[in-house]
């Protein structure tokens, strides 16, 4: 299983991420840098897929050319490097003047590809073998092929590493920063792998020893780790914040439930829809944003329905108790609000508004929906704890 | 599916279609949305704080020339926004045509000249279908505004936009308020 994952895992992951990005095509299709990110993902997916043992065999059977899969895989790597270079130019230039693509930028990788095709054709590698380097490492033409390949790949990936680290330091978006650092790690590992292979081919050609203790782990780990780092780095900025926000909203929705339930029992009219059982809520994932918004609105409506029963004296007493317990800031306000709402619900159940007490002067909460909902989350937690006392 | 459930689903589909067709201000502000709806209807909408401090949350009062939307000031700003959205939804749906406006006007705004009033509607509970529809439409308008929200292009670096997949929305001229 571990070996299967090492050989096929990067390809499966790259294909999945490419499909994921493709599903959101409308969000990036008109942006050149967005398109470059997609081409990068697609090139990684194609390059790693062609290099899996079964695809390596399929390419040979379809074309009859042994080891052609390796050349195709490297051609996709060139496309990948070219896309990365395009991406860097698109996002690194002045925003008001996106740079036009020049022939020179496309001619250089095309020339490198031509050189690779020539050396591939000249090298005598008659047996189709996924373990190409071991079998043909000392064959004339293989080292030359590799060095031509590196002429384009290594400078581009070094530039990408520098660029990604520079941008990671400058961005204020933590997910983008983490993603760029991972891209830098992935690019560095890829450079390291290709230099290691160049050294290996050179040693084989001149008959020198290349220690197996070094070769085996580098061969085994550098490519999967590099691909994994780049893929996660590219996916993280678009994927992670949305998931994180969803989990936060889901947790807040559940956290608001005790307060909402209490207000609903006091004033059933506040609910647009009848409440669902807790277990149903736990496994309902659709329309979370709408359901959270409804919960927020209904809690606020429910509080207004309780207004005749709110008592400033209860709020003041709860605030004093909270201060004694070491509460400060929003948590103190939330505790006082929870105690006030709790007392108002009881007063309403008795049908007796407080005698001679004034209603709280101000409604505590946030100035926007996020902060107000977060405050109500604190109130709900405090309310639940009051009930548990 | 129960008849009530089916009825609600049909209502939701209807409201979603209305919300989809609404002009959406970018960035989203409920007051700007009211201006856009007013421009489409050819009748100005004025937003006013509700007088008094009873349990009423909001009200829509239509005069000959203007729609007046009242909202409760003694609640948090996002809740006020929702109350305005609810009343605006009544305006959009054209609820309660000529529903005994003079009598309700007298209860709510005794000082207002009765000759000016065409219709009055107050938001309190969701007992009637019209109230449910307005509440649902208000929520769906908010959902659309929230889902289409993006930071302004000038606030986002190009590398961030490209990696987060928001480049089209940002550089294509779309922006919004988000959850704020």
Short description:
The complex is a heterodimer of chains A (389) and B (180). With 389 residues, chain A is mainly α.
List descriptors:
heterodimer; A: 389 residues; mainly alpha; elongated; B: 180 residues; alpha+beta; 4-stranded mixed β-sheet; disordered C terminus
Give Rg of chain A in angstroms: 31 Å
For the biggest β-sheet of chain B, the strand order reads 1-3-2-4
Instruction: Please trace the helix and strand order of chain B, writing H or E for each element.
Output: HHEEEHHEHHH
> What portion of residues of chain A is helical?
over 70%
What's the gyration radius of chain B in Å? Answer: 18 Å
What layout of secondary structure does this protein have?
The complex is a heterodimer of chains A (389) and B (180).
Chain A (H helix, E strand, L loop, with lengths): L1 H22 L8 H19 L2 H11 L4 H25 L10 H20 L9 H5 L5 H29 L3 H33 L5 H44 L1 H10 L11 H5 L5 H18 L6 H13 L4 H22 L18 H20 L1
Helix pairs in contact in A: 1-2, 1-9, 2-4, 4-5, 4-7, 5-7, 7-8, 8-9, 9-12, 10-12, 10-14, 10-15, 13-14, 14-15
Chain B lengths: L2 H19 L8 H12 L3 E5 L8 E6 L3 E5 L5 H17 L7 H8 L8 E7 L5 H19 L10 H7 L2 H5 L9
Parallel strand pairs in B: 1-3
Antiparallel strand pairs in B: 2-3, 2-4
Helix pairs in contact in B: 1-5, 2-3, 3-5
Question: Mind explaining what this structure looks like?
Answer:
The complex is a heterodimer of chains A (389) and B (180). Chain A has 389 residues and is mainly alpha-helical. Helices cover 76% and strands 0% of the residues of chain A. Chain A has helices at 2-23, 32-50, 53-63, 68-92, 103-122, 132-136, 142-170, 174-206, 212-255, 257-266, 278-282, 288-305, 312-324, 329-350, 369-388. In chain A, α1 (2-23) crosses α9 and α10 crosses α15. Chain B has 180 residues and is an alpha+beta fold. Chain B has 7 helices and 4 strands. In chain B, α1 crosses α5 (129-147), α2 (30-41) packs parallel to α3 (77-93) and α3 packs across α5. Chain B is globular and about 50 Å long. At the A-B interface, α2, α4, α8, α9 and α12 of A face α3, α5, α6 and α7 of B.
């Amino acid at each position: 299983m571990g070996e299967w994952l090492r050989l096929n895992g990067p390809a499966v992951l790259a294909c999945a991420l490419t499909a994921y990005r493709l599903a959101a095509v409308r969000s990036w299709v008109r942006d050149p840098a967005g398109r470059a990110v997609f081409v990068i993902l697609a090139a990684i997916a194609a390059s790693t897929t062609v290099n899996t043992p079964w695809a390596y065999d399929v390419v040979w059977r379809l074309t009859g050319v042994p080891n052609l899969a390796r050349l195709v895989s490297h051609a996709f790597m060139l496309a990948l490097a070219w896309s990365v270079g395009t991406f860097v130019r698109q996002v690194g230039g002045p925003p008001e003047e996106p740079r036009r693509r020049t022939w020179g930028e496309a001619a250089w990788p095309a020339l490198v590809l031509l050189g690779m095709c020539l050396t591939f054709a000249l090298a005598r590698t008659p047996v189709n073998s996924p373990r190409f380097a071991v079998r043909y490492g000392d064959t004339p033409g293989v080292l030359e092929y590799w060095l031509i390949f590196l002429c384009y790949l290594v400078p581009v990936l070094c530039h990408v590493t520098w660029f990604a680290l520079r941008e990671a330091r400058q961005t204020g978006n933590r997910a983008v920063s983490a993603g760029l650092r991972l891209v830098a790690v992935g690019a560095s590992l890829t450079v390291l792998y290709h230099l290691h292979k160049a050294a290996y081919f050179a040693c084989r050609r001149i008959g020198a020893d290349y220690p197996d203790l070094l070769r085996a782990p580098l061969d085994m780990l550098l490519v999967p780790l590099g691909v994994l780092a780049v893929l996660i780095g590219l996916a993280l900025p678009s994927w992670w914040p949305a998931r994180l926000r969803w989990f936060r909203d889901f947790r807040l929705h559940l956290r608001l439930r005790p307060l909402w339930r209490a207000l609903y029992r006091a004033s059933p009219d506040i609910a647009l829809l009848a409440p669902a059982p807790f277990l149903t809520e736990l496994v309902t994932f659709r329309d979370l944003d709408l359901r959270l918004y409804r919960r927020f609105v209904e809690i606020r409506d429910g509080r207004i329905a309780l207004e005749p029963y709110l008592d400033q004296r209860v709020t003041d007493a709860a605030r004093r108790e909270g201060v004694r317990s070491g509460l400060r800031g929003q948590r103190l306000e939330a505790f006082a609000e929870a105690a006030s709402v709790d007392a108002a619900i009881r007063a309403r159940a008795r049908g007796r508004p407080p005698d001679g007490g004034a209603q709280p002067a101000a409604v505590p909460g946030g100035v926007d929906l996020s902060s107000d909902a977060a405050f109500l989350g604190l109130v709900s937690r405090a309310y639940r704890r009051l009930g548990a006392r | 599916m129960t008849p009530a459930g089916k009825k609600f689903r049909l209502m939701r589909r209807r409201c979603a279609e209305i919300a989809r067709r609404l002009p959406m201000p970018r960035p989203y502000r409920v007051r700007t949305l009211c201006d856009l709806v007013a421009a489409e209807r050819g009748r100005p909408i004025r937003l006013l704080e509700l007088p008094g401090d009873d349990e009423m949350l909001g009200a829509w009062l239509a005069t000959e020339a203007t729609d007046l939307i009242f909202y409760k000031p003694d609640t948090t700003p996002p809740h006020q926004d929702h109350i305005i959205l609810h009343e605006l939804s009544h305006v959009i749906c054209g609820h309660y045509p000529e529903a005994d406006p003079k009598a309700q006007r007298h209860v709510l705004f005794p000082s207002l000249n009765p000759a000016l009033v065409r219709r009055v509607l107050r938001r309190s509970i969701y007992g009637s279908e019209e109230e449910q529809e307005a509440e649902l439409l208000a929520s769906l308008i908010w959902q659309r505004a929230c889902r289409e929200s993006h930071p302004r292009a000038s606030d986002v670096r190009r590398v961030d936009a490209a990696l987060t997949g928001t480049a089209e929305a940002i550089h294509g001229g779309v922006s919004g308020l988000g959850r704020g």
